[in-house]
Each structure stands twice: as structure tokens, then as C-alpha cells.
Design goal:
Blueprint: H1 2-10, E1 16-18, H2 19-26, H3 30-38, E2 45-46, E3 52-55, H4 56-62, H5 80-93, H6 99-102, H7 106-127, H8 132-155, H9 160-184, H10 189-216
Length: about 220
């Protein structure tokens, strides 16, 4: 038996990972990996049974090497104000986020806009923070605002699946704008992926806070990045 365990310990790691194994390794949700794959940003093959398999080497390449920290928006020559301007321009050109928004009265719309602005400010603050401590401080307010947005949606009888769809529709143009920044600033593949990964992790945490706020309106618990 000891000999068998020794052989098992020396067995080479599998070259292909399930979506859950890849998710655990890189620290993003399976849903995020699916979106990257469907958008063509992350390669995978699909088994005859319909399951995705990811190359271990590809997933490992997503992990930070520790050689240098992710560059801030400021370091890339971008300002939060400019990113917001470009984001809103693209958002205006896209399909409206949901009929339920247009059906609200002006006072109710403003009630939703206030946490929406805090969420956007928190995301930008995270990406432009000079330290992990500053990043978490910027995100704390955004998490509370996201929970508030969820609670408001519950109070207005918005179905949670419709709310989630709205959140994803707001997130997509933001990630597209970061992709354009990466191209404009000629970031290498690792730097571009670090930027998109950081934003995706932020949005994953905000989505969890949104759903938690929808369920009970409580202040969101701390969630691992």
C-alpha cells in the first residue's frame, strides 16, 4: 500500500481539466469560464457528452506570476472619468437593459440610479487602487450598493432572473471597454488578461451581493476575491 501511494504521488497531473477544476484553480466562477470560452477568449474542447475541458497549461497561464503587480488605470494613462464616458456611450448603443427599467416612474428610477452610480464608482476605484487595502475599501461601498440594488428590485417585484440579466447587460460593455483599453495601450496578453480577470472577479462579487440583497436586504458578507 505505501508503494501504491508513492506511485500515485508521482503520477503526472492531467493535461485537461473539468470546468469546476479550472474554476477552483484560477479563482473565477464556472459561469465566467463559460462566457470567456463562448466569446473566444479562452479555448476549450467539448466532449461528446457536452462537457467542456480546459487545457491545464492555458488555465495556469491565467494565474498571476508575481513578477509585477497589475497596472492601475492611472498607469495606463486612463482616468475613471474617461472610462465612464466611453462605457455610457457603448451602453447607450446597446439593447436597453430591461423593459422594467423604462416602466419605472422618475422617482423610482432615481432610487435605482443612486446605487448604480456607487457600484460603477467602486469598480473603477478598485481598478485604480494603489494597494489591495485601497481596492477593498473602494469595493466595500460598491458591495453595499449592489445589495441595496437587489433589495430595491425585490421591493418592486422584479424577478431575480430578470435582475441578473440586467446586471450582465450592464457588465458586458464595461468589459468591452477594458478590452479596448488593452488594445489602445498595447498591453501584452498577460497584462490584458490580468486586467480582465480583476474586473471579472469584482463583478462576480457584486453579483453575489446583488442576489444576497435581493434575498434579505442585508449588508453583504465578505466574499473572497
Amino acid at each position: 500500500m505505501p508503494e501504491d501511494r508513492t506511485k500515485a504521488a508521482k503520477r503526472p497531473q492531467r493535461a485537461w481539466l473539468t470546468i469546476q477544476e479550472a474554476s477552483d484553480l484560477v479563482g473565477v466562477s464556472p459561469a465566467t469560464l463559460r462566457r470567456w470560452n463562448e466569446a473566444g477568449d479562452l479555448e476549450a474542447f467539448v466532449t461528446p457528452g457536452g462537457h467542456r475541458r480546459f487545457s491545464r497549461s492555458t488555465i495556469m497561464a491565467l494565474l498571476p506570476t508575481g513578477a509585477k503587480p497589475r497596472r492601475r488605470l492611472h498607469d495606463l494613462g486612463e482616468t475613471p472619468e474617461h472610462v465612464v464616458k466611453q462605457y455610457r456611450r457603448e451602453l447607450a448603443d446597446r439593447t436597453p437593459p430591461g423593459d422594467w427599467v423604462r416602466g419605472l416612474g422618475e422617482a423610482d428610477r432615481e432610487a435605482f440610479r443612486e446605487p448604480g452610480r456607487r457600484i460603477l464608482a467602486g469598480v473603477l476605484g478598485c481598478l485604480d487602487a494603489a494597494s489591495p487595502e485601497e481596492s477593498e475599501a473602494a469595493l466595500a461601498g460598491a458591495l453595499q450598493a449592489s445589495a441595496r440594488y437587489g433589495a430595491l428590485s425585490r421591493d418592486h417585484d422584479i424577478q431575480v432572473d430578470l435582475l441578473t440579466d440586467t446586471f450582465l447587460r450592464f457588465r458586458l460593455p464595461f468589459l468591452h471597454e477594458l478590452g479596448r483599453i488593452a488594445r489602445r495601450r498595447r498591453l501584452n496578453a498577460d497584462e490584458a488578461m490580468d486586467l480582465l480577470l480583476a474586473a471579472s472577479r469584482i463583478f462576480d462579487r457584486l453579483l453575489l451581493a446583488l442576489i444576497e440583497g435581493y434575498g434579505d436586504g442585508a449588508t453583504p458578507r465578505a466574499v473572497e476575491a
